[in-house]
Amino acid sequence: MRSSLPAFFRPRPPRETLPPYRHPSSTSSQSGKTDAAEREFKIAAHIQQLQAQNQQLQAQVSGLQREARFVEAGDLLFPEGGYQLSPAGKSELSNNIVPKLTGLQNAKIVVYGYTDNLPVGAPLRRAGINDNLTLSSRRAGDVVTYLVSQGVNPNIISAKGFGDTHPDAPNDTPANRAKNRRIEITVQGPGAPGA
Fold first, then answer.
1. Residue-by-residue pLDDT tens, the chain, 195 positions
2. How remote is the C-alpha of 14 from its chain's centroid?
3. Could you tell me which residues come within 8 angstroms of residue 151 by beta carbon, excluding any fewer than 6 positions away?
4. CATH number of the domain that 112 lies in?
5. Phi-psi category of 123—alpha, beta or left, where left has phi over 0 and alpha has psi -120 to 50?
6. What angle is formed at CA 114 by the lines to CA 109 and CA 120, rounded to 5 degrees?
7. Which runs of E-coded beta strand occur in 127-193?
8. How far apart are CA 89 and CA 79, in angstroms?
9. Is the pTM of this model over 0.90?
10. CA-CA distance, 35 to 89, in Å (whole number)?
11. Exposure of 71 by Cβ count < 10 A (0-12 exposed, 13-18 middle, 19+ buried)?
12. Which of 8, 2, 24, 187 is nearest to 108 (CA)?
């Protein structure tokens, strides 16, 4: 007997029995826990690695920021109205500065020259030094030349003059003007002495 029911209502013949369907998250719950633990371990290891790198970089930055500064009175180093080192100035640099700077490789040395605010005199103008900026630059340059002649690495040293633009004291008394006539030697970097 034929069924008068449409085909979609007719019973099907029995099939092989299939296992019940399980969602992938439920079947791998155990392996999912293992995967999550492995990910957490890897993340923690990566964080530790980044922290170690950060500490190394901070140490490098700290080393690069090290600085030593030596200040020498201009009146001790140079004759009045002069820009070439006096014998006493050479002796001062040889005894107190050269030993600290020779042998440095991993550093940057800058010799800064400063003056008071009094105008340069006629003898200096005749020598081509028309202002305090030029005078301070010549003095700093003469110190650099001397230090190099005494064994300081010429590749790491330079000179810069500021004239009367960075006073340590007001230029209102002879004593204060003397404080402003100075040479500052800075050593920056991981090789800086005393750092």
1. 555 666 656 666 666 666 666 655 555 555 667 777 788 888 888 778 877 777 777 766 555 556 889 999 999 999 988 999 999 999 999 999 999 999 888 899 999 999 999 999 999 999 999 999 999 999 999 999 999 999 999 999 999 999 999 999 999 999 999 999 999 999 988 766 654
2. 81
3. 98, 102
4. 3.30.1330.60
5. alpha
6. 140
7. 157-161, 182-188
8. 9
9. no
10. 73
11. middle
12. 187
| Token pair listed for 130 | 């028309």
Quote the CA–CA distance of 157 and 122 in Å, as a whole number. 31
Question: Are residues 77 and 161 located together in one domain of the fold?
Answer: yes
User: Domain ends where: 62, 83, 106?
Assistant: 62
Range of the domain at 96: 66-188
